[in-house]
Amino acid sequence: MIPASGSYLLANARLHRSLTPGLAAAFDSDGFGLADIAVADGKIAGIVAHAKSKTPADAIDLGGRIVLPCFVDCHTHIDKGHIWPRKPNPDGTFMGALNATGVDRAARWSAEDVARRMDFSLRSAYAHGTKAVRTHLDSVPPQEEISWPVFETMRETWRGRIELQAACLLGIEGVRDKAWFERLAKRVAAAKGVLGVVTYMVPDLEELLDKVFAEAIKHGLDLDFHADETDDVAAISLKKIAEASLWNGFDGNILVGHCCSLSRQPDLEVLDTLDKVAKAGLAVVSLPMCNLYLQDRRGNNTTPRWRGVTLLHEMKARGIKVAVASDNTRDPFYAYGDLDMLEVYRMATRILHFDHPVGDWPKAIAATPAEVMRLEGVGTLAAGGSADFIVFKGRNWTELLSRPESDRIVVRDGRVIERKLPDYAELDELMVE
Ligand SMILES: [Zn+2]
């Protein structure tokens, strides 16, 4: 129904207030308003409140279907993706995931293996309506020399369809090897990447964080941490990152993922951490599906009693930027997933209570991660911006979030894309034991 010409008027579309700055419409209590979207030459020429009497006869009437901007997935691991058939997690725990992935990486992650699995992931993300992806890249020697060139090629291949970013990933102990870490930071800078580490409560954490910040400042890099992905209340590295940012006077963007242990800590400890996170201007991404899967596994014949996610509501109330993202897909850290940000949002709504009211939570899968990733004009719908959006069947939240919306329409630069998900069988030859 959407013409291939790239120029048309979509009438009677349901847009969300939080993702359409500048739209003056009558918004309902769920934040939706009816609007007409004019598309010309692949751009949004204008968005105005819908008025039936003023709609031209040749407009395409969407009948009040929801239209969202294309998604931004700011925390993924597409270098690990889809290895599950050859390297499952034996017990579903974090340690089980770490060990299994380490073995698989050392044995199997050639440039071709990584590239084919990455491309598979990106085709899925694109078909689901995602426009930008940040991936972490395991960067323990010698993997950094294999994966970073693959990433650079992949970014070029996908330019114009998916804006791909990468952050290096290593345990913070790796920073102790000063010369090697300096080389890594230089390599990341050369690839215009993001500097990332996984923080643990090691005795020299503060010193190691200072080294990370020093390298980021030296090369002008943004930072991306995995922090406190555990139920251990003694894990307070989120606070340590905020403190290090403040005393180093860091002015780049910092994204911190997971922060699970925060949900388990006493209120006073939490308040102190949130004060510092807000003051330091950190952004936080929760990975609801992966956290639900990995956290609170107590061994055989037990039921999880904790959801695993961090305190996003309390953070947002303090003005901290918050996002949700996919994290792992079909690897030992998460046995499922397909880089579908609608699934992430649906799960986040249920796990994190993104409802009653919905408020501006939709920003967490579009506008906010776009801001953290420094992607201008991405994650919102506005006149003058690219016509990159998704037309759903649902006309309200309960319709949108009850079905997988497998028949959604993805529009890029004003034109409907072919939404073809790659066949799992393509990866069969990489999965042979
Ligand atoms: Zn992660």
From TrEMBL:
UniProt-listed Enzyme Commission number(s): 3.5.4.1
Keywords carried by this UniProt record: Hydrolase
GO MF term set: cytosine deaminase activity
Residue span, Amidohydrolase domain: 200-417
CDD domains for the chain: Bact_CD (cd01293)
SUPFAM superfamilies attached to this UniProt entry: Composite domain of metallo-dependent hydrolases, Metallo-dependent hydrolases
The protein's name in its UniProt record: Cytosine deaminase
